[in-house]
Write a structure and sequence with these properties.
By secondary structure, the chain is α/β, with parallel strands linked by helices. It folds into 3 domains: 72-137 and 336-517, Rossmann fold (3-Layer(aba) Sandwich); 140-329, Dimethylsulfoxide Reductase, domain 2; 579-691, Barwin-like endoglucanases (Beta Barrel). 29% of the residues lie in helices and 18% in strands. The strands form 8 sheets. Strands 5-4-18-17-16-6-7 form a 7-stranded mixed β-sheet, with helices on one face. Strand 1 and strand 2 (23-26) form a beta hairpin. Mean pLDDT is 95; it is low at 1-6. The chain binds iron/sulfur cluster. The site of iron/sulfur cluster (SF4) has 14 residues, from helix 1.
């Protein structure tokens, strides 16, 4: 058994932010401070967000009492009054509109225990099908493409430390130098060997470190993957032996690839044919190579096909399931991996089971002590759910846990309107987020160092974060909130435990036999510091750090090429909206910024929204450095401070999405959805830019 850390001391914990889940230690003295801890993913490194993460523990912005809206104002209330009110209003709305009249919205930062109990709460205590979460906006396209190709999705099917042995890494739509800086140490082998290739329309800090940076026109990544694959085949680098032994479907995929020769791809993407051929040769020449994707290529209305294009390339080179090489997706949110495995998703049950699979329903229903027929079917996906709120056919009430959708969802002007149209909105959060500010009841909940719980990091490794400090007096865990509500809605106390270890024990049973099998993982094993990567199908099983080495998860054991073709962005530029906008993250902020905007050390560095654009583009719009610009799409306008960046494509503007109100980048974004994953097209929409009037 591999033991890589000692988790016996609760002060040895993990960062509350991204999916890397860096190891850190909390100081014993007050105020609590954070120190980096040697842990394989970060090896003693932390980014600025991690270093400053203790600031929110005793922030004056913390919510410390339930709030109930009275005469339009949020006023302090007791827990009993708040929970009684919620139970009464939900019961009334369910009686009037049926079980689907109430929706539940979760988050990819919630612990495994919370994600599990939230899904159970929705389907058992409320009986609603209307449950989904913000991970739908994050990794859903990569998950769907991974399942299609390999039969199973685990972000990285290998430990992140394996990457250090690679002499070539193709990073597509990923900017870890800003989003998870300690991760970049694992790219050192590729950087030293001149084999780091970055595909990104922007010259990001990650692209700066690359040997080759390919900057395709936004929304044309799929064409680029086809061109590089075409070059691999033309150069004689197809791994025919791997294809014979381990894959199926190449001939069908090739029928499309054959017509995408590099010169044709150059006309669509702007990436030269020579560069495409150079990348093909570089990847093929590597002893060990990886293809890694992230949000840049996934958050599109054809995001699943885009990822499939890159997986096809990896398969053609014989990488997935080969020791020292592979394909993986860099998960974003803290529990982006575990959050999609335990049942808070509209179409899933715990153990990464499909909700419409009769055997899965029977297994989980037995664990929950209910009839399989009583479990609702699949509900609306995240954006479709938000878009339906308060409509005649849609939910009239919603409970939100761990998500700030009024800032982070696409077409956020519409989402804010839909939230306002609800009869009843409940938000559980640490702080009064922009979504919480719209609620009828706000519930103050604990954060990472104040509660027990497990997280599954981007490698599929399950980590225990233990309660190290007491929360403020009137703050409760999300599990306690769900338990309190469930009993008020008539559920037996024992069906909704508030204790994290008890919930995890039930989760183990519910996940047994599923794709993400946690049945062999226990708090005792995690406390002892065992490195447990799922699946772990028994207490004596050592876990599965590397997947697919012998066979893939399809019944025939083979990985599948998927025939995919370039279609282009859903909203191409035109005379009215001649530019394209893309969105992303910056080093100092996390997701909607609800937490990091409250940390002075972070917010003083990037205190407001900005827009990056080429100096010529700025000049054409009459904009100078530091001017306030108005950026407009078909859905709305946002304001941002101008940053002229010579490396930007002249047809592109970039906006970080962490800012609220009139600075929301998501006022612009296009809610066109991928037909399979239901991922919105965050990464490209048509816009125009001008000076902000009156600024
Ligand atoms: Fe936290 Fe991610 Fe930064 Fe590590 S890289 S310190 S997990 S935000």
């Amino acid at each position: 058994r591999q033991v890589t850390t000692d988790a016996r001391d609760p002060r040895d914990t993990h960062c509350p932010y991204c999916a890397l889940q860096c190891g850190m230690t909390l100081s014993g003295a007050e105020p609590v401070e954070v120190r980096p801890r040697r842990f394989p993913v970060n090896d003693g490194g932390l980014c600025q967000k991690g270093w400053t993460s203790a600031a929110l523990l005793d922030s004056p912005a913390r919510l410390t009492t339930p709030l109930v809206r009275v005469d339009g104002q949020l006023r302090p209330a007791s827990w009993d009054a708040a929970l009684d009110l919620i139970a009464a209003r939900l019961s009334e709305i369910r009686a009037r509109h049926g079980a689907d009249g109430v929706a539940v919205f979760g988050g990819g930062g919630l612990t495994n225990e919370k994600a599990y109990l939230l899904g159970k709460f929705a389907r058992v205590a409320l009986g609603t099908s209307q449950v989904d979460y913000n991970g739908r906006f994050c990794m859903s396209s990569a998950a769907a493409a991974g399942i299609r190709a390999f039969g199973l999705d685990r972000g990285l099917p290998f430990p992140v430390t394996d990457l250090a042995g690679a002499d070539a890494v193709l990073l597509v739509g990923a900017n870890p130098a800003e989003t998870m800086p300690p991760f970049t140490q694992h790219l050192r082998g590729a950087i030293q060997a001149g084999g780091l290739v970055v595909v990104d329309p922007r010259r990001t800090p990650t692209a700066e470190r690359a040997s080759m940076h390919l900057a395709p026109a936004p929304g044309t990544d799929l064409a680029l993957s086809l061109g590089i694959l075409h070059a691999v085949v033309a150069q004689g680098h197809l791994d025919e032996s791997y294809l014979d032994k381990r894959t199926s479907g190449f001939a069908e995929a090739w029928r499309i690839v054959a017509s995408w020769w590099p010169e044709r791809v150059e006309r669509v993407t702007g990436v030269s044919a020579a560069d495409q051929r150079r990348v093909a040769a570089r990847l093929a020449a590597a002893r060990n190579a990886y293809v890694l994707t992230a949000r840049g290529t996934e958050q599109h209305a054809d995001g699943v096909n885009m990822v499939s294009g890159w997986i096809n390339l990896a398969l053609a080179l014989g990488l997935p399931g080969t020791p020292g090489s592979g394909y993986g997706c860099l998960t974003g949110q803290g529990n982006g991996q575990g959050g999609r495995e335990h049942g808070q998703k509209a179409d899933q049950l715990p153990g990464y089971r499909k909700l419409d699979d009769p055997a899965a329903r029977e297994h989980v229903a037995a664990v929950w002590g209910v009839s399989p027929d009583s479990l609702p079917g699949p509900g609306r996906s995240a954006y479709e759910l938000l878009d339906a709120l308060g409509t005649e056919a849609g939910p009239k009430a919603m409970l939100v846990f761990g998500s700030n959708v009024s800032v982070s969802a696409p077409h956020s002007g519409n989402v804010a309107e839909r939230l306002s149209a609800l009869d009843f909105l409940v938000v559980a959060d640490l702080v009064l987020s922009e979504t919480a500010a719209l609620a009828d009841v706000v519930l103050p909940v604990t954060q990472w160092a104040e509660e027990d719980g497990t997280m599954t990091n981007l490698e599929g490794r399950v980590l225990l974060r233990r309660k190290a400090i007491d929360p403020p007096d009137e703050v409760r865990t999300d599990l306690a909130v769900l338990a309190g509500l469930a009993t008020r809605l008539g559920q037996p106390v024992e069906a909704f435990p508030a204790d994290a270890e008890a919930v995890f024990t039930e989760l183990r049973t519910a996940s047994a036999g599923g794709a993400a099998d946690y049945s062999g993982i226990s708090y005792d094993r995690l406390r002892a510091g065992e490195a447990l990567y799922w699946p772990v199908p028994g207490e004596d099983h050592p876990g599965t750090p590397r997947m697919f080495l012998d066979s893939f998860a399809h019944p025939d054991g083979r990985a599948r090429f998927v025939p995919v073709d370039h279609t282009g962005p859903g909203e191409p530029p035109d005379a009215e909206f001649p530019l394209q906008a893309t969105t992303g993250r910056v080093l100092q902020h996390y997701q909607s910024g609800a937490q990091t905007r409250l940390v002075a050390e972070l917010n003083t560095v990037v205190p407001e929204a900005y827009v990056e654009l080429h100096p010529d583009t700025a000049a054409r719009a009459g904009l100078a450095e530091g001017d306030l610009a108005e950026i407009t799409s078909r859905r709305g306008s946002t304001t941002a401070r101008v940053r002229r960046v010579p490396s930007m494509r002249p047809d592109l503007v970039f906006l970080p999405f962490h800012f609220p109100g009139a600075q929301r980048a998501n006022l612009l974004t296009n809610p066109a959805l991928d037909p399979t994953s239901r991922m919105p097209e965050f990464k490209v929409c048509a816009v125009r830019i001008s000076a902000k009037e009156g600024a």
